[in-house]
Design brief:
Layout (H helix, E strand, L loop, with lengths): L1 E8 L2 H6 L3 E7 L2 H16 L5 E5 L2 E2 H7 L10 E6 L5
Parallel strand pairs: 1-5
Antiparallel strand pairs: 1-2, 3-4, 3-5
Length: 87
């Protein structure tokens, strides 16, 4: 089943995409939705890793593990943020 979420862009990604956020239809399962978001930004905007993808305020890896049996709800927020190394 598909659900509409909000995809927000942080840092230079907002300038690269020309928008700060946009709605996106994804699978209600978190892991599948994360994969769909990654494919979407790569195909539409040519954005490839490294970047940070958050589901709500949680990194996608943690969200996939913790919310395996908890479907996404309409309006949940995904955030795409630049990966910045402190090294």
């Amino acid at each position: 089943m598909q659900v509409e979420v909000m995809l927000k862009y942080g840092g230079h990604f907002a300038a690269q995409t020309g928008c700060a956020q946009e709605p996106l239809e994804v699978d209600e399962q978190v892991e599948a939705a994360c994969e769909q978001v990654q494919r979407f930004v790569q195909q539409r905007y040519q954005i490839c890793p490294p970047y940070i993808l958050l589901v709500g305020n949680q990194h996608m890896i943690g969200a996939c593990k913790k919310r395996k049996d908890q479907p996404l709800q309409r309006g949940e927020v995904f955030q795409l943020l630049p990966f910045v190394s402190g090294g």
